[in-house]
């Protein structure tokens, strides 16, 4: 009877599954789940972390239980000066660490720089510029008293061009993104600040990423979206730049708001324990995105090391409650969280601290995120401790000149019928577009730049920063014309003033039209775009503006200040549009850098780090704009696999308007003499063997709970502390005003501290060290065949040969400066990883037997030289 019932149930279940898979609206990834992976790998101090690890263990061994918990938990939203802050360990001379965004500038600061956007400087394809930007922004954070810089961003990668935060990332190509993020991290950390690669993982859209935001926008969902990604795509695409970030030594990684395979990123043991700490051998600490944490002990067991900003919900109002803090102390004392795991969290945090030299270059925090006033409350949430909170320290150190140069060298010349460069001695120059002018509401209009006002130099959300000044294009062009003391200039910056526009444009020798398209983080909507863009067209009536000007002016130059690709269909092939420049989001020196390009002081040399297609559909996938799973978590199935951006266009054989890697110069270049040298290297060996047992650095007695009680000191309201409120544990976490903790599920093996098998593809930060063996060196001769000096970005692509491989994948590049007539050798290496595919069965990289072809070219579709790999 029982058996019968059981088989009836099984039958019903399999019928339900069959029905589900018959449902043609859902692909195979719909409802994917993440396999459990435990225990959480402990730091081993390898790959350059040996000394930091030793010192971290030394200090953590001296810490008490509550001191360690203090390190792992944010003190609560708006309780201290920074966007996030953890408790300190005063007894050992350790100050509370300050966490602040972003890699584009110190957010909510003053007298700091606003740097070239990452998505813009991605177009420079220049390792030195990336490093210098990282070093400069790291220095500004250090001088403001920041310990952890919450950036750079490499997730989103840029799966869909409308993704709201794509402007914060270098490129949707994993190799370009990986090389750029590694240089940026080295720069930030050489400046003495801990970098934090984010948002781990597959955080490809803003809409529906978290419940409170979705509610704010009128949707009723019970969980944030799930990004469902297959294993090979994960390794070959989304995880790829994180491997570079970890290999470059990033001290921190931030997990994201979204779910991956229906498990929240900050509680997902597969992505944190296995992929990040196992496969990638990450030695630093993982911290949660603000409010991306949905559990206590289980997230710690899944590999999270720090809860930020500490509160359970800060969007929904903070009340001093935390999944961590007191709950973590209780969890160790009641035997739920093994001591070694807490020791590991603290050791990872302290190892990152020593790794970048925080102990020797500490600066006390001298600004306050919550007010620009000199005087204010030190603890804003509680309205306590009034005094000087802002010292207004100018941390710019002359970075403006570098930003000007970086933004100019990132500009991409898309079209030029001989119109550029200008001489500055044109009879009458007419400038058009709201995007040319000083923001009427000031450069710092709207919190987190959440509106469109004047020229667009930075997107909105936590990647933005406040300007100390902003040079608009109109100011710079006017200075240029006036400085030359010849010629006239006028401007119409109202995009709907058609009669005035037409009158001026018809008289102009040259018309320069500035247009834009904006996007940002999902905390804010601008013109009903909830972070992500609703479309790929220009904002503020841009197409009609260009149309109006070009109808009467046969020398119309278009400058695009956009967050990513826009549809240029309506004007790109208009013969009256004589030049087009994509200038991205240039930061504070916007006008000066575009003037340097327009007037030929700098020859444009940037190349598109993304594809400009003719239609949004051409990109082969789209965001999920509306809940698609009832009230349950929206399902975002990454069915396109590795075929995003140019790989999608190549696969579907769709002609883009401007392909990935495309960009013109004021001069021309010839390519010749491709050579491939093979480098003998030893055979790839999977990492094997066992780890040591998890070190336990101290023995917390469970019988002296009195030691963990709230000490004799004032309690700051809403502040999150590690202490017990009662020696009765249950009462402590259930202190009347806090409520019962959810009793947390202990997954199998999660508390196991015995030696564990090593991961075959792991073994060192970034993965198996042999993945970085150089297998080939590819060289070619590049000649400047034109009349002007210029810089050429030479690109190395590979076809991996398999039936499911993209036509080509970018693997390396270099930017060469060449005088007219000069030739230089382009030389780039190919590593084992560059030539490998992820084998999902053996969970390791393999070089397949398929014949592989190497291409050297000027873009993803100008593959000028090619040869098969010997
Ligand atoms: C997600 O599910 C897919 C399909 O089952 C699987 O290939 C992949 O490894 C899973 N990834 C994660 C992170 O759980
Ligand atoms: C925890 O951090 C807070 C804030 O820095 C500090 O006041 C407190 O003394 C710390 N507790 C311990 C046990 O070190
Ligand atoms: C949201 O959905 C849940 C579950 O279906 C339902 O109980 C709740 O009433 C809904 N809330 C609103 C505001 O519509
Ligand atoms: C695209 O979005 C922008 C910004 O919201 C808006 O100005 C524009 O009108 C939209 N374009 C179309 C075709 O709807
Ligand atoms: C180009 O500009 C000229 C004026 O110089 C105008 O007569 C012509 O119609 C324009 N062409 C287009 C395609 O707009
Ligand atoms: C634009 O029009 C003017 C006069 O109408 C003419 O002199 C000039 O050659 C034209 N320029 C181009 C690039 O066609
Ligand atoms: C926990 O809190 C609830 C509600 O405040 C209360 O009913 C219960 O008795 C408390 N439990 C303990 C062990 O204090
Ligand atoms: C402990 O966590 C639970 C949620 O699991 C929460 O309700 C409770 O308020 C937390 N306790 C403290 C002291 O923050
Ligand atoms: C131990 O404490 C943690 C944190 O408060 C709680 O989530 C867990 O359910 C508790 N476990 C037991 C066995 O009491
Ligand atoms: C050959 O490979 C080894 C190991 O990666 C490397 O140290 C060496 O520099 C390479 N030689 C060349 C010429 O690339």
UniProtKB/TrEMBL annotation:
It comes from the Eukaryota. It comes from Patellaria atrata CBS 101060. InterPro entries: Cellulose_deg_GH3, Fn3-like, GH, Glyco_hydro_3_C, Glyco_hydro_3_C_sf, Glyco_hydro_3_N, Glyco_hydro_3_N_sf, Ig-like_fold. Keywords: Carbohydrate metabolism, Glycoprotein, Glycosidase, Hydrolase, Polysaccharide degradation, Signal. The keyword Coiled coil does not apply. The keyword Ion transport does not apply. Residues 22-41, 740-765 are annotated as: Disordered. GO terms for molecular function: beta-glucosidase activity. PANTHER family: BETA-GLUCOSIDASE (PTHR42715), BETA-GLUCOSIDASE A-RELATED (PTHR42715:SF29). GO terms for biological process: glucan catabolic process. It is an enzyme of class 3 (hydrolase). It catalyses: Hydrolysis of terminal, non-reducing beta-D-glucosyl residues with release of beta-D-glucose. Its EC number is 3.2.1.21. Belongs to the glycosyl hydrolase 3 family. This is beta-glucosidase. Pathway: Glycan metabolism; cellulose degradation. Residues 792-860 form the Fibronectin type III-like domain. Residues 1-18 form the signal peptide. SUPFAM superfamilies: (Trans)glycosidases (SSF51445), Beta-D-glucan exohydrolase, C-terminal domain (SSF52279).
């Amino acid at each position: 009877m029982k058996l019968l019932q059981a088989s009836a149930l099984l039958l019903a279940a399999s019928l339900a599954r069959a029905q589900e898979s018959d449902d043609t609206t859902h692909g195979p990834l719909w409802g994917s789940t993440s396999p459990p992976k435990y225990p959480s790998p402990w730091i081993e101090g390898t790959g350059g972390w040996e000394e930091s690890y030793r010192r971290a263990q030394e200090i953590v061994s001296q810490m008490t239980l509550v001191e360690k918990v203090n390190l792992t938990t944010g003190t609560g939203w708006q309780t201290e000066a920074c966007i996030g802050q953890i408790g300190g360990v005063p007894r050992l001379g350790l100050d509370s660490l300050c966490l602040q965004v972003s890699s584009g500038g110190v957010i909510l600061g003053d007298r700091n720089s606003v740097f070239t956007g990452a998505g813009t400087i991605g177009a420079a394809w220049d390792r030195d510029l990336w490093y210098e930007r990282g070093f400069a922004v790291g220095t500004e954070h250090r001088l403001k008293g920041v310990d952890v810089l919450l950036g750079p961003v490499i997730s989103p990668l840029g799966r869909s061009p409308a993704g709201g935060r794509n402007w914060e990332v270098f490129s949707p190509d994993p190799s370009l993104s990986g090389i750029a993020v590694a240089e940026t991290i080295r720069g930030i950390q050489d400046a003495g600040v801990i970098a934090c690669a984010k948002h781990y993982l597959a955080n490809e859209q803003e809409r529906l990423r978290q419940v409170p935001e979705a509610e704010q926008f009128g949707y009723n969902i019970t969980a944030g979206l799930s990004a469902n990604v297959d294993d090979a795509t994960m390794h070959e695409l989304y995880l790829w730049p994180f491997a570079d970030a970890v290999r470059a030594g990033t001290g921190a990684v931030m997990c994201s708001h979204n779910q991956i395979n229906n498990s929240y990123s900050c509680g997902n043991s597969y992505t944190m324990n296995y992929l990040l700490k196992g496969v990638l051998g990450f030695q630093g600490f993982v911290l949660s995105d603000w409010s991306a944490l949905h559990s206590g002990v289980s997230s710690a067991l899944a590999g999270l090391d720090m809860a930020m900003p500490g509160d359970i919900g800060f969007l929904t109002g903070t009340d001093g409650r935390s999944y961590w803090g007191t709950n973590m102390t209780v969890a160790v004392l009641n035997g739920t969280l093994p001591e070694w795991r807490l020791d590991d969290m603290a050791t990872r945090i302290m190892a990152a601290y020593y790794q970048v030299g925080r102990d020797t270059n500490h600066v006390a925090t001298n600004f306050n995120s919550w007010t620009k006033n000199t005087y204010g409350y030190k603890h804003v949430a509680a309205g306590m401790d009034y005094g000087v909170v802002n010292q207004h320290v100018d941390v710019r150190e002359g970075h403006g000149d570098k930003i000007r140069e970086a933004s100019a060298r990132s500009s991409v010349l898309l079209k030029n019928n001989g119109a550029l460069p200008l001489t500055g001695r044109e009879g009458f120059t007419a400038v058009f577009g709201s995007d040319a002018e000083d923001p009427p509401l000031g450069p710092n209009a709207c919190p987190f730049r959440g509106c469109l006002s004047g020229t667009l130099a930075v997107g909105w959300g936590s990647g933005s920063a406040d300007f100390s000044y902003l040079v608009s294009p109109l100011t710079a062009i006017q200075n240029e014309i006036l400085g030359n003391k010849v010629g006239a200039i006028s401007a119409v910056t109202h995009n709907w003033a058609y009669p005035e526009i037409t009158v001026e444009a018809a008289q102009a020798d040259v018309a320069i039209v500035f247009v834009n398209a904006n996007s940002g983080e999902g905390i804010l909507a601008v013109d009903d775009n909830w972070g992500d863009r609703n479309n790929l067209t220009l904002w503020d009536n841009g197409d009609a503006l260009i149309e109006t000007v070009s109808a009467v002016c046969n020398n119309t130059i278009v400058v695009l200040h956009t967050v990513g690709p826009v549809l240029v269909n309506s004007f790109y092939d208009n013969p009256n549009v004589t030049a087009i420049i994509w200038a991205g989001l240039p930061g504070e020196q916007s006008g000066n850098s575009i003037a340097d390009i327009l007037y030929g002081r700098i020859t444009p040399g940037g190349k598109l780090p993304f594809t400009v297609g003719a239609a949004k559909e051409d990109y082969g996938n789209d965001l999920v704009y509306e809940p698609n799973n009832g009230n349950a978590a929206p399902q975002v199935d990454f069915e396109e696999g590795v075929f995003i951006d140019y790989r999608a266009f190549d696969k579907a054989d769709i002609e883009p308007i401007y392909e990935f890697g495309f960009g013109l110069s004021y001069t021309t270049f010839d390519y010749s003499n491709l050579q491939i040298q093979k480098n003998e290297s030893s055979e790839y060996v999977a990492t094997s063997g066992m780890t040591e047992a998890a070190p336990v650095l101290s023995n917390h007695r469970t019988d002296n709970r009195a030691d963990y009680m709230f000490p004799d000191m004032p309690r700051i309201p809403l502040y999150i502390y590690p202490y017990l409120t009662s020696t009765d544990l249950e009462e402590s976490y259930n202190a009347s005003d806090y409520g019962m903790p959810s009793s947390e599920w202990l997954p199998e093996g999660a508390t196991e501290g015995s030696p564990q098998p090593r991961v075959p593809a792991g073994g060192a930060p970034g993965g198996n060290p042999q993945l970085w063996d150089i297998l080939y060196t590819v060289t070619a001769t590049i000649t400047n065949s034109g009349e002007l000096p210029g810089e050429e970005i030479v690109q190395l692509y590979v076809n991996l040969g398999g039936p499911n491989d993209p036509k080509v994948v970018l693997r390396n590049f270099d930017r060469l400066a060449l005088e007219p007539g000069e030739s230089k050798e382009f030389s780039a290496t190919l590593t084992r990883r560059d030539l490998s595919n992820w084998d999902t069965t053996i969970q390791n990289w393999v070089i397949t037997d398929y014949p592989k072809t190497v291409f050297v070219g000027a873009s993803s579709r100008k593959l000028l030289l090619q040869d098969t790999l010997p």
